[in-house]
């Protein structure tokens, strides 16, 4: 049915690749490309070692280089490109898709490499170009963003006449038994959580100091966890698409030990994203040195545990959902829709931990919606712009079942 090229070979890409191979009736031809081809080849080997039979092609590509991307796309001729590379590379990949007539899907919005700031405006600006080319671009099809928007769309379609208050809550109650590690790319993760918080209320965006607003929230099968208000990209599209929303916020849990280490990283200057000069010894053993430029956060990424290696000893589970208050048939109603995912279940199936799993599965599901013709229309779209029902049905069958609670205390 579909010829797909996936860019990326990290934890999320590993999960997406396993899921693509499990659904070969939909994904009939599959290529994995990354900056290091050997990572793609290792991923293919991991899939084959699990007993899956699939002809998976691999390739090397620099996703910062539009010409390299165009050469690869013109050679393989994918109908859909799944971008699971870095957010810095979204626009170059979209440019290459336009040049080569490929449709596009990603899991995180664009952000400039030299500025810790993200928003949808850069990618929404491509809407007319994709419409004129007759191509579909699906933005932010992971869990949050992604499933969180599908949950909201499902609530609006089935349970509310008007949504007034929306809180997206994201809890990782797992333990990887490391002193400090991030669950996805450390560079992207630390850039995100050290930004100022941002939420929407009464038609205005309100900024807070990083992680300054927090409160205990109770998560299913987990219990109370300290949850911190953060800026998250899906709020931007949700308040645009659901104008009855009076307030929209995003919350994520962090443990005290994690935040202590994060404070130290910032105090020591290791979260900086600008270049600094460093006197480094030459590799020839001569004892001579040379001045080199490094970005502290990129250096930190190199010495921190690789998120792909956390799964084996990761226990506990995640819980991500939407807590919604609004009006149905003239009466106020509360609604909570969520998924819990156990890290060990994710590891046993794909070799990755639950955070990668909850992002990789929706990426595959969104691609499936595209190939089945259910999420296919020219332009640039967010997940809530499409019918949520078939997407959520696929998630139920592919390892991310969802649950609903009506009339409960949302705590917010």
UniProtKB/TrEMBL annotation:
Matches recorded under SUPFAM superfamilies: NAD(P)-binding Rossmann-fold domains
InterPro entries: NAD(P)-bd_dom_sf, Sacchrp_dh-like_C, Sacchrp_dh_NADP-bd
Occurrences of domain Saccharopine dehydrogenase NADP binding (ranges): 4-138
Stretches assigned to the Saccharopine dehydrogenase-like C-terminal domain: 142-400
Source species, domain of life: Bacteria
The name this protein goes by in its record: Saccharopine dehydrogenase
Naturally occurring in which organism (per UniProt): Prevotella denticola
């Amino acid at each position: 049915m579909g010829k797909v090229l996936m860019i990326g070979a990290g934890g999320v890409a590993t999960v997406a690749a396993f899921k693509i191979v499990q659904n070969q009736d939909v994904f009939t031809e599959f290529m994995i490309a990354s900056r290091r081809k050997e990572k793609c080849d290792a991923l293919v080997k991991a899939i084959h070692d699990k007993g899956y039979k699939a002809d998976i092609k691999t390739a090397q590509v620099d996703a910062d280089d539009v010409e390299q991307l165009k050469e690869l796309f013109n050679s393989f001729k994918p109908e859909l490109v799944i971008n699971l590379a870095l957010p810095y590379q979204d626009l170059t990949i979209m440019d290459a898709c336009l040049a080569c007539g490929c449709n596009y899907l990603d899991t995180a919005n664009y952000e400039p490499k030299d500025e810790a700031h993200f928003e949808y405006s850069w990618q929404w600006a491509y809407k007319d170009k994709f419409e004129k080319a007759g191509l579909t671009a699906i933005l932010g099809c992971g869990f949050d963003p992604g499933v969180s928007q599908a949950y909201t769309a499902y609530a609006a379609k089935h349970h509310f006449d008007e949504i007034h208050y929306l809180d997206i809550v994201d809890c990782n109650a797992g333990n990887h038994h490391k002193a400090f590690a991030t669950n996805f790319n450390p560079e992207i993760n630390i850039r995100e959580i050290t930004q100022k918080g941002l939420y929407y209320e009464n038609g205005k965006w309100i900024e807070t100091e990083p992680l300054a607003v927090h409160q205990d929230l109770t998560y299913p099968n987990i219990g109370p966890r300290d949850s911190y208000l953060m800026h998250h990209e899906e709020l931007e599209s949700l308040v645009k698409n659901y104008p009855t929303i009076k307030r929209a916020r995003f919350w994520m849990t962090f443990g005290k030990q994690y935040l202590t280490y994060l404070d130290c990283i910032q105090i020591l200057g290791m979260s900086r994203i600008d270049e600094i000069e460093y006197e480094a010894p030459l590799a020839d053993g001569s004892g001579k040195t040379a001045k080199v430029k490094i970005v502290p956060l990129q250096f930190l990424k190199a010495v921190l545990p690789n998120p792909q290696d956390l799964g084996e000893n990761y226990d506990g589970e995640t819980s991500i959902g939407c807590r919604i208050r609004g009006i149905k048939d003239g009466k106020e109603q509360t609604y909570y829709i969520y998924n819990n995912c156990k890290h060990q279940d994710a590891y046993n199936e794909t070799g990755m931990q639950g955070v990668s799993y909850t992002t990789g599965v929706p990426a595959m599901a969104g691609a499936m919606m595209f190939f089945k013709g259910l999420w296919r229309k020219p332009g640039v779209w967010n997940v809530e712009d499409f019918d949520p029902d078939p997407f959520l049905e696929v998630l139920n069958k592919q390892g991310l079942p969802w649950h609903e609670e009506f009339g409960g205390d949302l705590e917010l």
